[in-house]
Amino acid sequence: MKFPFAAKGVSKIFNAEIISLIGALIGGVGMVLSFIAVSGNVDQGTFDTLIIATGACVLVAGIIIAVAGIMSIVGYFQAGKDEVSFKRAILCVIFSIVFTVAASFFANQTGFFGWLNVCNMLATIFLILGLMALSVKCSRPDMVKHGKDILTTLVILYILTFVLSFIGRWGAESTVFGSIVNWLSGLSLCFTVFLYIFQIYYLGKAKKMLKEN
């Protein structure tokens, strides 16, 4: 095995992404519940229940994603011993954990989610670049090309997710957007799931590549 540290690190990052996906799904459910609650079409009892459920989902999601983030940091440190690009993602992941925790306690503040999105996007860019660099060292031009395609797709999805999330949160308090907020939040959740799936898919291929070299 040419890159033992990278192999162990990428494996940890791979597992962390799967855990993050679970957290994102739970957080997405909380987001949808919050939009339903503020839509004005529910009675007081239902509203209270939805708010409690929203808070619980967001808090649990924040804890899960924070744990996955810590696991990712360990993985990035390990992988960084074989490829420097991974080290550049560590600071982004740390800030991502901070904003995740902040967003859990201040769920109605769009700013936290915006910065969280930016940090996640930068971490993803450094992750893919690191995997592409390792692919070059492993003489796998197919993985390099695939990495470029994945990177372009992920950046576009991150931007779309941020825009939809911002519009959804702003529209939740607007009568103009009130009727389509739930659709926007659902679409944003779908994009978030796709983000994790694309990352996990490429990480899985890279994990296999490193074991074979």
Task: Describe what this molecule looks like in 3D.
The chain is mostly helical. Helices cover 85% and strands 0% of the residues.
Produce a short descriptive summary.
The protein has about 210 residues and is mostly helical. The chain has helices spanning about 5-35, 45-80, 85-105, 110-135, 140-170, 180-210.
How large is the share of residues in beta strands?
Answer: under 5%
Number of DSSP-assigned strands: 0
> What is the ordering of alpha helices and beta strands?
HHHHHH
Main sheet overview: none
Write the topology of this structure.
Layout lengths: L3 H34 L6 H36 L7 H19 L4 H28 L3 H31 L9 H32 L1
Based on the model shown, name its key terms.
213 residues, mainly alpha, 6 helices
